[in-house]
Design goal:
Chain A: Belongs to the 2-oxoacid dehydrogenase family. Chain A: It is an enzyme of class 2 (transferase). Chain A: It comes from Brevibacillus fortis. The complex is a heterodimer of chains A (445) and B (327). By secondary structure, chain A is an alpha+beta fold. Helices cover 26% and strands 22% of the residues of chain A. In chain A, the strands form five sheets. In chain A, strands 9-18-17-16-12-15 form a six-stranded mixed β-sheet. A four-stranded antiparallel β-sheet of chain A has the order 1-8-6-3, with no helix packed on it. In chain A, helix 7 crosses helix 10 (421-436). Chain B has 327 residues and is α/β, with parallel strands linked by helices. Chain B has two domains: 2-184, Rossmann fold, CATH 3.40.50; 197-326, Rossmann fold (3-Layer(aba) Sandwich). In chain B, 37% of the residues lie in helices and 20% in strands. Chain B has twelve helices and 14 strands. In chain B, the strands form three sheets. A seven-stranded mixed β-sheet of chain B has the order 3-2-4-5-7-6-12, with helices on both faces. In chain B, strands 9-11-10-13-14 form a five-stranded mixed β-sheet, sandwiched between helices. In chain B, strands 1-8 form a two-stranded antiparallel ribbon. Classes of the chains: A alpha+beta (445), B alpha/beta (327). Chain A binds chain B through residues 97, 128-133, 149-150, 153, 155-157, 185-187, 190, and chain B through 204, 227-228, 254-256, 282-287, 326-327.
């Protein structure tokens, strides 16, 4: 029996994946759980494991092609079974309803029809009378709604949820909000399975045709680039950003770190950088001001119990924000190790889905490339982000005398729906105080 | 408040009405000395005597016909048809005489008869003891058709039927008799005929049923709640005339409607319910109206596996409800 292998859902809001590399060829024998292909998705690189043991009979999606979750990508002839081609879909990996475009398994040439379902076109959507009625009454653009019904159908409840949440947002934010709404106690398999309508959300109207002159280089937009673009647009559209900054005298911190780093490196095999100190101070301050560690959920604000710090890690062509889970339970050493591990795995392209999710607040180390001032964009749906700028020596006035001190700017962008200046000011003062009090008594372990 | 079985609620209703009104009497096969084959009239001949609890010959046309005559004379007969399957010889009396008496006589006469009939399968009764015949009577104006699903409703509606000035056909699902128990007040209460009842509030799907299958729906709804699916369950209680207002309200609430009954699908009560929803709720509908019913085969099979195949059960209902919720 030839088993169909489908593009798996590698994360709850992931709707499509790119086959970056096939690890098998037609005719290869594979065992169950053997890796079949490398897949790049919006959020993560992953390998697709085989759901059965057998022989690869047909590769349907060529390398480099991006297809919707649930799309047929290859056939495996199960070992010990001979037979015809059209057979049940393997269900172990993919409990996700198929996209409407792929919903006719009885079609004579399934492979062809699936390949001909490019993301941009999307399948024709059919709407129930209730959905049409509600969307017209409330001015909702259904093309920007992602359905949770069978095959991605937009249900009356989907539309009602948007209306209840105060109507449609100007940008393409509906998908995320619907999928992430904590009240959505829907079966996992019914949440946002729709691959098709994920047409680039950053194109609100008809895309303007920008001319390419001769000699210009056209760089195709990768999946991760598009995700960055979408998420930045979403955050800026949705969250009214306010910005504030404090300057912190970290002379004591610099002295302490310089004195401790030699032994630390010897003992732990790890460079003691400044970042863990900043993260530690932020985490301690978050405990004092839990409201900062929260998220806007339309009709309520959800204050997160866990303190999971997203850190921005840049590679040559992209930016990732892996997460230090339960940072409040870690020492400076623990944070240092986590940062080191995440940074290393980011550069190796080995981040898992779990590494990328669950962040509640972001610390961005812009100082690492020499910046002294930045206006970070909030890592939605978090409520705030803090960037740590370069530590620079500057003359400052202390007790009416001029002294040369190591100074650093801490910049913070906040979602003004959730937070106001006062609480953020207090939070930053708390961070500042903690950093300025670092000294010989500070515990690294 | 005592928890009693469905059949005890039936008996209680008749006993109370017979005590309240000396015009009320029972007639039917084996209702007297035997106390009814299902024991619905158990103990009544002892209390009210053989003139008010009358054993009749095996002739349903006579049971209903005599009842109609007595009703015309001012009595309030409760005619028991031993199994609803046996009602066919009395259809002429019910449909052409009882149901039309008020209309035909220009309001001079009326016919306050209650005809009780146990219906439905699942008791290994095969062809002659399992049929659901309600749909044959649900387009007869002048007749009211009632089918309660709980002991509380059974008592309140049977008392209402006995007091009704016109003929009421009262169907009791025989599988409910001893399977379904519930709290029933000992005091005198009646429930309005023609009113459906919301048995469970929900927001995702609307399930409309009656009789035994209503309990399957409630059990399935309970399980689905654990999956995060919230089902709204409407018990029709009266099958003719239907409570259109309640049906429209329940259907509009979720826009996804499943109608469940044991009777055959084609031409069943569910078709009329679906038509009401289609007529009034188009712009609230979010999914095709679904029916889950007995298959369109001539009879309830005797073979246990086949009977099981014919009968609905909570699992079948759950599957249909989940599918609709996911649509």
């Amino acid at each position: 029996m030839a088993t169909k292998v489908l593009m798996p859902q590698l994360g709850e809001s992931v709707t499509e994946g790119t086959i970056s590399k096939w690890l098998v060829n037609v005719g290869d024998t594979v065992k169950k759980y053997d890796s079949l292909a490398e897949v790049t998705t919006d959020k993560v690189n992953a390998e697709v494991p085989s759901t059965v043991s057998g022989r690869v009979t047909e590769i349907v999606v060529p390398e480099g092609e991006t297809v919707a979750v649930g799309t047929l990508i290859l056939y495996i002839e199960e070992s010990g079974a001979e037979g015809s081609a059209a057979t049940p879909v393997s269900t172990t990996e993919i409990p996700v309803p198929q996209a409407p475009a792929t919903e006719q398994p009885k079609a004579a040439t399934p492979a062809v029809s699936i390949q001909q379902a490019p993301i941009a076109d999307g399948p024709k959507q059919r709407y129930s009378p209730a959905v049409v009625m509600l969307s017209q009454q409330h001015g909702i653009d259904l093309s920007r709604v992602v359905g949770t019904g069978a095959g991605g159908r937009i249900t009356r409840k989907d539309v009602q949820a948007i209306i209840d949440a105060g109507g449609q947002k100007p940008a393409e934010t509906v998908k995320e909000t619907v999928a992430q709404a904590p009240v959505a106690a829907v079966e996992p398999s019914t949440v946002a399975p729709t691959p098709a309508p994920s047409a680039p959300p950053s194109t609100p109207a008809a895309p303007v045709d920008i001319p390419v002159a001769s000699g210009d280089q056209v760089v195709p937009v990768t999946s991760i680039r598009r995700t960055i673009a979408n998420r930045m647009v979403q955050s800026k559209h949705e969250a009214p950003h306010a910005w504030t900054m404090v300057e912190v005298d970290v002379t004591n911190l610099v002295n302490f770190r310089n004195q401790a780093k030699g032994e630390f490196a010897k003992k732990e095999g790890l460079n003691l950088t400044f970042l863990p100190f900043f993260i530690k101070a932020v985490v301690e301050a978050l405990k004092e001001y839990p409201m900062i560690n929260s998220t806007w959920a339309h009709d309520k604000i959800i204050v997160k119990k866990d303190i999971n710090i997203s850190i921005a890690v840049a590679t040559e062509d992209a930016l990732y924000v892996p997460v230090i889970k339960h940072a409040d339970q870690k020492s400076i050493l623990g944070i240092a190790k986590a940062v080191d591990d995440l940074a290393a795995r980011t550069r190796a392209g080995k981040l898992t889905m779990d590494d990328m999710t669950g962040g509640t607040f972001t610390v961005n180390n812009t100082g690492s490339f020499g910046s002294v001032l930045s206006q970070p964009i909030i890592n939605a749906p978090q409520a705030a982000i803090l960037s740590v700028e370069s530590i620079v020596k500057r003359p400052v006035v202390i007790n009416d005398m001029i002294a040369v001190r190591s100074m650093v700017n801490l910049c913070m962008s906040l979602d003004h729906r959730v937070l106001d200046g006062l609480i953020c000011g207090r939070f930053l003062q708390s961070v500042k105080q903690k950093l300025e009090n670092v000294g010989p008594d500070t515990k690294l372990y | 408040m005592a928890v009693i079985s469905f059949i005890d609620a039936i008996t209680m209703a008749m006993r109370e009405e017979m005590r309240r009104d000396s015009n009320v009497f029972i007639l039917g096969e084996d209702v007297g000395v035997r106390g009814g084959v299902f024991r619905a009239t158990n103990g009544l001949i002892e209390e009210f005597g053989e003139e008010r609890v009358i054993d009749t010959p095996l002739a349903e046309s006579a049971i209903v016909g005599v009842g109609i005559g007595a009703a015309a004379y001012g009595m309030r007969p409760i005619a028991e048809i031993q199994f609803a399957d046996f009602i066919m010889p009395a259809v002429n009396q019910i449909v052409s005489e009882a149901a039309k008496m008020r209309y035909r006589s220009n309001n001079d006469w009326h016919c306050p008869i209650t005809i009780r009939a146990p219906f439905g399968g699942g008791v290994h009764g095969a062809l002659y003891h399992s049929q659901s015949v309600e749909a044959m009577f649900t387009n007869t104006p002048g007749l009211k058709v009632v089918a309660p699903s709980t002991p509380y409703d059974a008592k309140g509606l049977l008392k209402a039927a006995i007091r009704d000035e016109d003929p009421v056909l009262f169907f009791e699902h025989k599988r409910c008799y001893r399977l379904i128990k519930g709290e029933v007040p000992e005091d005198d209460y009646v429930l309005p005929i023609g009113k459906a009842d919301v048995k469970r509030e929900g927001t995702d799907i609307t399930v409309i049923s009656y009789g035994l299958t209503l309990h399957f729906c409630l059990q399935a709804a309970e399980k689905l709640a654990q999956e995060g699916i919230s089902a709204h369950v409407l018990d029709l209680r009266t099958l003719y005339p239907l409570d259109k207002e309640a049906i429209v309200e329940a259907a509009s609430k979720t826009g996804k409607v499943l109608i469940v009954h044991e009777d055959n699908k084609e031409g069943g009560v569910g078709g009329e319910v679906a038509a009401i929803v289609a007529e009034h709720c188009l712009f609230d509908l979010d999914a095709p109206i679904k029916r889950l019913c007995g298959p369109d085969v001539p009879a309830m099979p005797y073979s246990p596996p086949m009977e099981k195949y014919f009968m609905l059960n909570p699992e079948k209902v759950l599957e249909a409800m989940r599918e609709l919720a996911n649509f």
